[in-house]
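WARN retry 2 of 3 for item q-0093 after timeout on previous attempt; input resubmitted unchanged.
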Amino acid sequence: MPCYGDACVDPTYDNLRYQDNTIIRRPGKNGASDIYFRFSKGDHPGDGINVATSDSLSGQWHLNFTILGQLSDISKSDCVSGTYKSQNFANSDLNRWAPEVHFINNQYYLFYTVEDQKNGYCFDQCVATSPSMDAGTWTDHG
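OK item q-0093 returned
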C-alpha cells in the first residue's frame, strides 16, 4: 500500500522509509471518527518507536510522536543485567523494532524487541501499555 503524508519519508535520515509497521484502529467515541495508529521502527538505534496516525488506511499518514526513545528502566533487560552486564551499555545503543499492538481488557499493549547491536547482538522482548495510545500515556514495563 502506498504511503502518503509526512510520516512516509524522513528527510533528516537520508530519506529512509519507516520500517516494521503495524497498524491498529482505535474506534471513535461519541460520534468521532475512527483513528488508525501506525507504529514503526525508528531509522537508527536509540530513535524509539514512531507513531503516525490517519483517518484512513490509505493515508495521509502524519508522524505524531515517538515513544520509548528513552526506556524507563533498561536495567530490566538481560542485555544489561544478565550476560552482558559488564559491557559498556548506553540507552542510545538500543534498537527498538518489530512493534506489535493489541487491545486487551480496555488496555493497549505494545510488544516490541530491543536489540543491542553494539555489545554482542543481545535481544529482548518488551512490553509497554497505554489506555488510549495517545502521546504521554505509554508506560514501559521492560
